[in-house]
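Subject: mismatched residue count in predicted assembly?

I count 628 residues in my input, but I want to confirm that the predicted structure covers every chain. Input:
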Amino acid sequence: MELHEQIFQYIISGLTLGTIYAVIALGFNIIHNATGIVNFVQAEFVTLGGMLMYSFYSLLKIPLPFSFLLSTAAVTVIGALIERGPIRMAKSKAIIILVFITIGISSTLRGTALLVWGPDNMPIPSFSGEKVIRIFGAALLPQHLWIFAITIGVVIFLQYFFHRTLTGKAMRAVSANRRAASLAGINVNRMILLSFAMSGGLGAVGGMIIAPISTTSYDTGVMLSLKGFAAAILGGYGNSTGAILGGLILGVLESLGAGLISSKFKNAFAFLILLLVLFLKPSGLLGHGEAERV
Amino acid sequence: MGRRSGCSMFFGKKQNLFLIILALLIILIPVFVKNKYYFTVMNVIGLNTIVVVGLNLLIGFAGQISLGHAAFYGMGAYLSAILTTTYHFPPWPTMVIAMLATGVVAYFVGYPSLKLRGHYLVMATLGFNIIVNIFMVELDNITGGPSGFPGIPPLSIGKLTFDNDYKNFYLIWTFAFFSILVSLNLVNSRVGRALKAIHGSEVAANTLGVNTDHYKTKVFVLSAIFASLSGSLYAHYLTFVSPRSFDFYYSIQVVTMVIVGGMGSIWGAFFGAGLLTVLSEILHVAEKYNIIVYGTLLTLVLVFLPEGFLVGLYRFYQKRKTKALIEGEQRLIS
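Triage response: the counts match. Full output below for your records.
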């Protein structure tokens, strides 16, 4: 393959990964905007999406669209339960305590996933065949197209939800000013519940669409979601356009770095970028300067 | 802050007594305990105590959380391992070199992120931890890669070589004892009061002339140096290191120890290290359930006893005592 073809190939696979990071980053943002915390359970949302998809689609042979919806619904409910249970019951609402509660829940769920599905990587068949499509010399799988299409669908849905529906607007109001929102008659707790549920659903979608390419196991979500988190920081934490941009840039840089520099350090690139952003421009690419220096 | 006055009430006046009891325990335990396995567990507790006591200074007093202490612990371990084994450096000076090197690295990680408001240190240290771990695995010609680095020489003083669990018990616990002593002194010093002020209100502390960035960075570097010291001891004790011991799950574990013990209570940190190390050992029998129990415990303690196990239970006991007193009074009146 010529160099420019190779680079093109890297960019394609980078964009694929990047869209996954973007979906996960959006999940981080929704909870961050509602509560101000970093939700480490995001990793398990991604894992559970993939593993439930495996159970429903590969084991129980439930048709694809239903498996997809069932898994999304299940993880959405799990997200809601996490908020309704430990997060709401917590005696201290200090951010740092809530963050570590999510770390605790994340360990519990990861352990449970290990018990239920075991430690092995599980394959999931592609949504529609394996026939390679060639574009300018780069190889593209149908699954790549599914990933792009579903991500675009998710982004359009979120855009519509947050800007056109009353509930979405109420959620934005809560993130802008919780007390004012509450005074305006918005049920803040319900909005937080909704943010956990949506985050769960988003994580699950991310985990399901990447699974046919990367296989899925009880801890696939960990690395993916940490990188999604790096993407959220890169784009400007809390900013949804930033999350998408951050995800795509991170995916492409990682893929180019792994391909052209060294594949050994593939996983290190995302975190090097994370550190550089934190040190040089902590508000991220599109942040509003919330991370002011003191 | 109110919640810390609880623990200082609990431990404040009796601090010297507790120190003497701890010293006596360290001297006497080997007289009574003969089981080699118990020594291994106690040594691991000692190593964890050093890390956790340092980390507790950062979390409890500077109000900042690090998810990168496994990396600093690992840097101590790997620097000691590589320099003494491959390059035949003398072990003791190497330990100091490792501590200094780790301190410098911690400064460069901590300083930029501590200048920012919010919890940026968590993210920066988490990223840093993952990068360091990847380097441990991938630089295999220097670090031995994923299979680890064997053949590290044990420490020795003169003719005394610390080459078994029993001798290492004294070595590790001497360091653990002094790390507790240093932290207690630090907390009760000018620096400690500055740190408490920062935890209470950063803005107020700043207005009163406390250079908050400066203190936070200092305590972060200090806690990294504690971790590095513990890492070096670990390397010379086990004579083998591998990357898996230093991934970010270990960072989460040590933070859990601090939180379960009670943030800001040094004795609580010691207690947390002991409790969770023993718990992990017991759970090793049922390895499958290890991470579930760990996670559930962390969640439950945080949800119901956010001040930590020790302080939380003490508060509960106090409340009941007060309630009993009130009821007694009421009975007297009626």
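The CA atoms of residues 54 and 226 of chain B lie 6 Å apart. Marking this ticket as 'not a bug'.
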